[in-house]
């Protein structure tokens, strides 16, 4: 057969004209639409999959949250206590040093 666009002789089995690339068969456009719908359906599927994955991650976080919050607050409290004790020890050391210096002066 011949391409209806450019008149190039093409094989009867050819879907597209090798010369100008125009779709040659009737219903090719329909097939393209079908392909598009298949692709978009696959996209939707992957979107829903990623959404469910996100939901799974979120539920994981939600499951960990009751554990994570006390642990985090415990770490904060522990570090603040440690920092306070460290500060107190530093102050005590300074006080002791001052007292020693005062005694040596007297
Ligand atoms: Zn052509």
TrEMBL record:
It comes from the Bacteria. InterPro entries: Zinc_ribbon_dom. Residues 2-21 form the Zinc-ribbon domain. The chain crosses the membrane at residues 64-87. The keyword Transmembrane helix applies. Residues 27-56 are annotated as: Disordered. Keywords: Membrane, Transmembrane, Transmembrane helix. Residues 27-36 have a biased composition (Basic and acidic residues). This is Zinc-ribbon domain-containing protein. It comes from Bacillus caldolyticus.
